[in-house]
C-alpha cells in the first residue's frame, strides 16, 4: 500500500488525465454524456477549462488508446486528434494577403494536416490488425497526390513515403505564411475532398468496412473567425460522408455559426449535437457529477484497498449545529445567557422542558430570528412554537435559514469564520469542474499529510476549508491574466464577491444564500458601455467567474444578457464568505458592473444600500446546484 505522500506524488503530480494516465497509471472514467459523444452524429463538446473536454476527446483518439494499451479489440470508429494552437492558427492572417486568399491557403493546410494525421493512425491500425488494402490501390494514391498537389513521380508505396511528402508541403506552407511576399505554393482541392477520398476507400475495405472516422478537434476557440467557417462547412456536409467531427470548445468560443456560404447556418440539432458538459454533470441536482468524481478520486487515491475510508468518511461534513459549536464559546456562552433569562421569567415547568429540548445552536438561531424580524413576538413564544405549536413551520425556517445564519455570527479572533467541508459539499463547490475538485482534494490531503494523517484518518474540516479558500484565491488571481479583460474581470470578481459576502453577513433580513444576479436593461447607456458589459460577461463565462443559467428554467440559455442569471462560481465562496448553494438572486444594473469592474470607490456600498432600501435580493427560487 502506498503512503499518502507517495499517492500525492504519483497520482496528483498532474491533474490532467492525459498526463497522469499516459503510462496506464489511470483508467478513463466514462462521463454521463459518453454514449452521446460516441454516436456517428457530429458533436460539439462545450465546457470551461477543467471540465474534461480534452480528456474525453483524447479517450477517443486511436493513438492515445494505443499508447495506453487500451486499443479496443472491436474497432467501432477511428479517432484522429488535432489540438489547435493559437500561434499557428493566427499566423494565417494579415501580411498583405487578402482574406479570400487566406481562406484558400487555410483549406489546403487543413487537408494536409487531417490527411497526414489520418494516415499516421492508419499505419498503426495496420500494425495492430493487419493490412487494410489501401496501399494496393494505386489509383487512390495518384488521385490523392493530385488533390494535395504533391510532387509527381515520387514514391507512393507506403504510408511513410506519402506522409513524408505531405509533411514537406506542410513545412512549405508554414514557411510561406511568414513571408507571403514570395510566390505562393501551389494549392490543392477545397477542404474535405482528399479526406472523403480516403474514407470512402476505408468504408469499402474488407478489414475496416463500415468503420467511420472521427476527427477530434480540440480548443476550437483558438481558430480565427474565417477558420471556424471552414470547419463549419466541413461539419455541415460531413453528414453525407463516412467521417464526422467531434469538437471541443469553451463557452462563447464558437463565435461563428455560418459556413463559407454566409446564408448557410450550422445549428443544433439539425447539424450536430450540442453536449454541454456543465449542464449534463449538473443533472439530478449535481449527483451525476458527484458520482463521476467519486469514481475518479477513488481510483487516484486507491481507496478500494482494505482498511481505507470511503470519500464521505475521508472528507466528513458538519451539520449546521455542529459547525456553530466550533467557534469557541461564542454560541454556548450566548445560549447559556438566553436560557438564564428565559428561566428567570418563571414561565413554568412545561416551558423548561421545551427549553431543554433545544440545542444551544437552535436556541441562538431562534433568538436572532426574532430580533431581526420586528413584530414577530418574544423569544419565549418562539420557543413554544418551535417545540410544540408550530414545529413544522420552524423546521422549514431552519432548513431555509440555518446555513445563512452561520454567516451572521460575529466571530472574533478565529482563523476560520465559515466551514466548507464534506464530500458532497466539495463536489458542489467545484461546480462540476473535475480539475477544481482534484485541486481541492490534493490541497486538503497535502495539509492532512503534513500533520501525519493517512487515508485511514478523516481530513479535518479546517483543512478542507483552507483548501477551498486556497483554490478559490488562486482562481481569483488567475483572472487578472485571463485575457485583455483580465484586470477588469478580477475587479468584477472582487466587487461581486464582496457584495455577496456582505449580503451573507446579514442573511436573516432578506432572502437567504444570495449568490446569483440578474441584469436589468441598459436604457440610457452608451453603446460602447453596453458592449463593454456584454464582452465582460462573455469573458466571465469563458474563465469560470460566472456560471450562466436561463431565467426561464424550461427555456434554452438565451443570447440576451437580460434573460440570463449569472451565478458566481462556487469555487470563490470561501474566499468571499458566501454560500456555495446560491438559492436566490438579486438584480443588478449595467452601470453596477461597469463601476465594479473599474474598482470605482463606493460601488459595492451603493449597491448594498440600494438593495436595503428596495428589498432587491431574492425572487429566484431555483437552486442552481
Give an account of the 3D structure.
It is a single chain. Helices cover 50% and strands 8% of the residues. With 625 residues, the chain is an alpha/beta fold. The chain has a five-stranded parallel sheet. Helix 11 (225-237) links the parallel strand 3 (213-218) and strand 4. Residues 17-24 and 618-625 have low confidence and may be disordered.
Q: What is the percentage of strand-forming residues?
A: 5-15%
Proportion in helices: 40-55%
Q: Biggest sheet, strands in spatial order?
A: 2-3-4-1-5
Low-confidence runs: 17-24, 618-625
Q: Quick one: overall form? A: elongated
Number of DSSP strand runs: 9
* Distance N to C terminus: 36 Å
Broad structural category: alpha/beta
- Put simply, the count of helices is 28
Rg over C-alpha atoms, rounded to the nearest angstrom? 30 Å
Main beta sheet strand tally, sense and closure: 5 strands, parallel
Report mean pLDDT, rounded to a whole number: 87
Write the layout of secondary structure elements.
Elements: H1 4-11, H2 17-20, H3 34-38, E1 43-46, H4 53-58, H5 62-67, E2 78-83, H6 86-89, H7 99-129, H8 138-147, H9 159-176, H10 193-203, E3 213-218, H11 225-237, E4 243-249, E5 273-276, H12 277-281, H13 287-301, H14 311-314, H15 320-324, H16 330-344, H17 349-356, H18 360-372, H19 379-389, H20 391-408, H21 423-429, H22 434-450, H23 461-479, H24 486-505, E6 514-519, H25 527-542, E7 546-550, E8 564-568, H26 573-576, E9 584-588, H27 590-597, H28 603-614
Parallel strand pairs: 1-4, 1-5, 2-3, 3-4, 6-9
Antiparallel strand pairs: 6-8, 7-8
Helix pairs in contact: 7-9, 8-10, 16-18, 18-19, 19-20, 22-23, 23-24, 24-27, 24-28, 25-27
Amino acid at each position: 500500500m502506498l503512503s499518502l505522500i507517495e499517492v500525492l506524488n504519483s497520482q496528483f503530480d498532474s491533474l490532467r488525465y492525459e498526463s497522469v494516465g499516459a503510462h496506464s497509471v489511470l483508467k478513463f472514467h466514462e462521463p454521463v454524456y459518453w454514449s452521446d459523444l460516441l454516436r456517428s452524429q457530429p458533436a460539439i463538446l462545450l465546457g470551461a477549462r477543467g471540465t474534461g473536454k480534452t480528456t474525453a476527446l483524447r479517450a477517443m483518439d486511436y493513438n492515445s488508446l494505443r499508447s495506453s494499451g487500451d486499443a479496443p479489440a472491436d474497432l467501432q470508429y477511428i479517432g484522429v486528434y488535432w489540438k489547435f494552437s493559437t500561434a499557428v492558427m493566427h499566423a494565417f492572417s494579415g501580411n498583405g494577403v487578402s482574406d479570400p486568399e487566406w481562406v484558400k491557403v487555410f483549406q489546403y493546410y487543413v487537408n494536409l494536416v487531417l490527411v497526414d494525421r489520418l494516415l499516421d493512425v492508419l499505419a498503426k491500425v495496420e500494425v495492430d490488425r493487419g493490412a487494410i488494402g489501401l496501399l494496393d490501390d494505386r489509383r487512390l494514391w495518384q488521385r490523392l497526390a493530385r488533390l494535395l498537389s504533391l510532387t509527381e513521380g515520387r514514391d507512393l508505396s507506403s504510408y511513410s513515403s506519402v506522409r513524408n511528402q505531405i509533411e514537406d508541403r506542410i513545412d512549405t506552407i508554414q514557411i510561406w505564411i511568414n513571408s507571403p511576399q514570395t510566390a505562393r505554393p501551389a494549392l490543392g482541392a477545397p477542404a474535405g475532398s482528399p479526406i472523403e477520398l480516403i474514407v470512402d476507400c476505408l468504408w469499402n475495405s474488407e478489414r475496416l468496412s463500415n468503420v467511420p472516422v472521427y476527427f477530434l478537434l480540440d480548443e476550437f476557440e483558438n481558430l480565427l473567425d474565417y477558420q471556424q467557417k471552414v470547419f463549419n462547412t466541413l461539419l455541415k456536409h460531413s453528414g453525407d460522408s463516412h467521417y464526422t467531427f467531434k469538437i471541443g470548445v469553451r463557452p462563447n468560443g464558437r463565435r461563428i455559426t455560418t459556413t463559407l456560404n454566409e446564408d448557410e447556418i450550422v445549428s443544433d440539432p439539425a447539424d450536430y449535437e450540442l453536449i454541454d458538459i456543465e449542464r449534463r454533470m449538473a443533472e439530478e441536482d449535481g449527483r451525476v457529477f458527484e458520482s463521476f468524481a467519486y469514481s475518479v478520486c477513488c481510483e487516484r487515491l486507491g481507496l478500494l484497498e482494505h482498511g481505507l475510508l470511503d470519500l464521505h468518511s475521508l472528507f466528513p461534513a458538519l451539520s449546521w449545529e455542529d459547525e456553530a459549536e466550533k467557534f469557541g464559546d461564542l454560541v454556548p456562552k450566548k445560549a447559556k445567557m438566553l436560557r438564564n433569562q428565559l428561566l428567570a421569567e418563571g414561565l413554568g415547568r412545561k416551558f423548561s422542558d421545551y427549553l431543554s429540548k433545544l440545542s444551544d445552536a437552535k436556541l441562538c438561531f431562534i433568538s436572532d430570528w426574532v430580533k431581526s424580524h420586528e413584530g414577530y413576538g418574544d423569544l419565549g413564544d418562539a420557543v413554544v412554537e418551535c417545540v410544540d405549536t408550530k414545529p413544522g413551520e420552524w423546521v422549514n425556517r431552519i432548513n431555509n435559514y440555518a446555513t445563512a445564519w452561520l454567516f451572521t455570527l460575529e466571530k472574533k479572533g478565529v482563523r476560520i469564520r465559515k466551514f466548507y467541508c464534506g464530500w458532497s459539499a466539495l463536489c458542489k463547490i467545484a461546480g462540476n469542474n473535475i480539475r477544481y475538485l482534484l485541486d481541492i482534494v490534493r490541497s486538503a490531503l497535502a495539509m492532512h499529510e503534513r500533520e501525519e494523517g493517512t487515508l485511514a484518518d478523516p481530513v479535518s474540516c479546517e483543512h478542507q476549508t483552507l483548501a477551498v479558500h486556497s483554490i478559490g484565491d488562486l482562481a481569483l488571481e488567475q483572472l487578472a491574466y485571463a485575457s485583455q479583460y483580465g484586470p477588469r474581470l478580477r475587479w468584477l470578481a472582487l466587487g461581486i464577491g464582496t457584495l455577496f459576502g456582505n449580503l451573507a453577513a446579514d442573511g436573516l433580513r432578506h432572502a437567504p444564500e444570495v449568490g446569483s444576479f440578474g441584469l436589468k436593461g441598459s436604457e440610457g447607456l452608451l453603446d460602447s458601455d453596453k458592449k463593454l458589459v456584454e464582452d465582460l460577461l462573455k469573458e466571465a463565462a469563458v474563465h469560470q467567474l460566472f456560471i450562466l443559467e436561463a431565467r426561464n428554467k424550461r427555456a434554452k440559455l438565451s443570447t440576451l444578457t437580460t434573460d440570463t442569471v449569472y451565478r458566481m462560481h462556487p469555487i470563490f465562496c470561501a474566499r468571499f464568505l458566501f454560500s456555495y448553494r446560491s438559492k436566490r438572486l438579486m438584480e443588478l444594473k449595467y452601470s453596477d458592473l461597469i463601476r465594479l469592474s473599474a474598482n470605482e470607490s463606493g460601488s459595492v456600498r451603493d449597491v448594498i444600500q440600494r438593495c436595503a432600501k428596495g428589498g432587491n435580493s431574492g425572487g429566484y427560487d431555483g437552486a442552481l446546484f
